Amino acid sequence: MRHAESYVKTMRALAGRIRAVPKFSIWQFDMLCDWFAYAWNRGTISFVIEEGQARGVCVIKLFSRLEQFLEPFVHEPGGRFAFIEVLSSEGPQIHRRLWDELVGRWGHPPIVMWDRPWRTEGGAPRMFTWGQFEKLSRRFYGKRT
């Protein structure tokens, strides 16, 4: 598949961060570009690149029905669920910037799903109400200023 040069340049910077997520760790660059073009075109990717270095990337899927989290390409912004497909960054402040950008763009869903392999160990993704997710995120990021 052919992609815009600006997209390819951005993906070159983000590829290492995306590959930090075990699911994507061995994907070739072309496959990463093809897969994440869906999120790029729908605005469900957030990233921080400073001085040419990727400091973080977050990719979400938005959907209405629980079983849709298994669908690779779903986009229903008015749905009840958000699934964090990728969240990889240098640290808590970058995590916050990434997530805040997506919440600013799409609002906060009632339910957030997140599969952190080191926490779920091959099981189902964890599900959080928005309030629970905010509480969890405060542990990561500290209080908002």
Key terms:
Aminopeptidase; 145 residues; alpha+beta
Output the strand order for the largest sheet.
1-2-3-4-5
The oligomeric status of these chains comes to single chain
Choose one word for the global shape. Answer: globular
Strand content: 15-25%
End-to-end distance: 43 Å
Low-pLDDT residue spans:
none
Biggest sheet statistics? 5 strands, mixed
Series of H and E elements: HHEEEHEHEH
In total, the number of domains comes to: 1
At the third CATH level, what is the topology name?
Aminopeptidase
Q: Percent of residues in helical segments?
A: 40-55%
Which architecture per CATH? Answer: 3-Layer(aba) Sandwich
- Provide a count of the helices: 5
β-strand number: 5
| Rg on CA atoms, Å | 15 Å
Structural class estimated from helices and strands: alpha+beta
Question: What is the mean predicted local confidence, pLDDT?
Answer: 89
